[in-house]
Amino acid sequence: MTLHWKATAVTPAQSLWPLCPRHINDKSSNLMRAVWHLLISATLGVIATRANYLSAKMGALLACALMRLEVVGRPSICPRMQFSQRWLWTILLFLSLLIGCQTDAPIHAPAAPTTETAVPPATSTSFTPATLATTPIPPAFWYGVDASFLPQLEAAGAHFFASSNVADGNVADGTAQDALAIFAAHGVNSVRLRVWVNPADGHNGTAETLALARRIHALDMALLLDLHYSDTWADPGHQAKPAAWMDMDGAELETAVYTYTFNLITAFKAQGTLPHIVQIGNEISPGFLWDEGRVGDGYENNWPQFAALLQAGIAGVQDALEPADRVQIMLHLDAGGNNAVCRWFLDNLQAQGVTFDVLGLTYYPWWQGSLDDLAANLQDLSRRYPQEIVLVETAYPWTLDWQDDTHNLVGLAEQLLPGYPATPAGQAAFLRDVLAIVRAAPQGKGMYYWAPEAIVAPGFGSFWENVALFDSNGHALPALAVLGERP
Fold it and tell me: In this predicted model, what pLDDT tens digit does every residue of 94-134 receive, in sequence order?
């Protein structure tokens, strides 16, 4: 039995039969008709490819698929023709597949999106976040630091040393190291970075944060991205809109939030540094993007507006992701020791239908109460709400002395907790006990030390040098080793 190729299917090429040369239309020239059929089908496949409806490989395969094989039970007219048909079809099939394999990429590959050029897919100002980004990442405990000051300190000439020359008797080896590498060596597995929309001096802006994220990624640490939605500090007392958004409200402001967030996450994803957690707003107990997104005293009716702005930010994150991406959404409150505030906020947010993955909390004992207050709050929140809990800001002083003329936020004995002196050992003990409290909470999933790198440098006046995890000479303090301790 001889195999013959015969084009009998009704295909796009048959509509072009009138264009076929006369001698090919002769029904006795089955081989030539088949070749013509293949060429026309392949051409249509390429045209479809150029129109971006099919990949080039699909175009080539389509050309082959359009041909139907038939087993014709008749003797071949000519053995030589039988041989030629088999080899000709083998060659044509090989060439069509080869062409398809060489054109997998788009004809004009798009450039990596930036925060200025990426175009979000939203077509409506009603932002309803999808569910893909609420899929939790694998369980872990985050031993983290917020190192957002690091580029400024490095530019000012700060140096960091892994060995401590305070209290523990170790002698520094005199070799300065990358602070991020020191953190990683001490067990830190995640770094938190704040991002401002358009900072006056460029610090904490998109470009600087992208560059720092690349360094973090190179050290195999994860990234928590803290979006302030402001050009400067956003906290319970300051939640100013970016200058470029100042006259916006309603749907226009929601669109600005969505577009900015989408473009930002797209930029981080494009360079291979997708955050593991994205924080929508910073310490937002009183809302954010004032006054449109303000809640609390005098703004009790603003919850729908506040929720809509949060949803816009969450949707911006999710729409920048692919189905395989896993990014958790965090909302952050400045109420680590205040259970009443946390419950008031979370209950109101639940009523508005806002869902998220992680509750971030701030805990500084001079502002948020005792360790008992913190422990009781984490236990209660773990029972009441499904979100994981991460302490994203905490710190404690190792001295009350000042190393420069910049006013320190912590400098009084009455700001200290009983039993935890402002010494290297006292700082380490505080950190160890806070870690134990977070781990003991059923939903406790991590802790971040705020500004451990904020020492004094020749060109950098610090309000935090006595609370950092490096001493006045840049040598690591004992508490840094505690930060990464595994149970």
Answer: 444 444 444 333 323 333 333 344 556 544 456 666 544 33
pLDDT digits (tens, 9 = 90+) for 157-182: 999 999 755 444 444 456 899 999 99
In what helix (H) or strand (E) does residue 393 lie, and over which residues does it extend?
strand 388-394
Q: In the chain, count of helices (H) and strands (E)? A: 14, 10
Task: Report pLDDT digits (tens) over 352-376.
Answer: 999 999 999 999 999 999 999 999 9
How far is the C-alpha of 344 from the C-alpha of 220, rounded, in Å? 38
Q: Which two tokens stand for residue 275?
A: 């955050």
Q: Which of 389, 279, 285 is nearest to 344 (CA)?
A: 285
Asked if 185 contacts 479 with a C-beta cutoff of 8 angstroms, the reply is no
Cα Rg of the chain (Å, integer): 32
Q: Find out whether the peptide bond into 334 is cis, omega within 30 degrees of 0.
A: no
Average pLDDT over residues 35-59: 44
pTM: 0.73
Strands (E), 95-158: 142-146
CB atoms within 10 A of CB 332: 24
Q: In whole angstroms, give the CA distance from residue 428 to residue 432.
A: 6
Selected catalytic residue, list 208, 254, 283, 465: 283
Q: Over 90: is that where the pLDDT of 62 sits?
A: no
Q: Is 252 a catalytic residue?
A: no
Identify the active-site residue in 208, 254, 393, 453.
Answer: 393
- Sketch out the chain's domains with CATH numbers: 4-101 (no CATH), 132-483 (3.20.20.80)
Locus of tokens 């200058």: 243
CA–CA separation, 171 and 485 (whole Å)? 21
Q: How many CB atoms lie within 10 A of CB 73?
A: 8
Question: Which amino acid does the sequence have at 86?
Answer: R
Q: Does 393 participate in catalysis according to the annotation?
A: yes
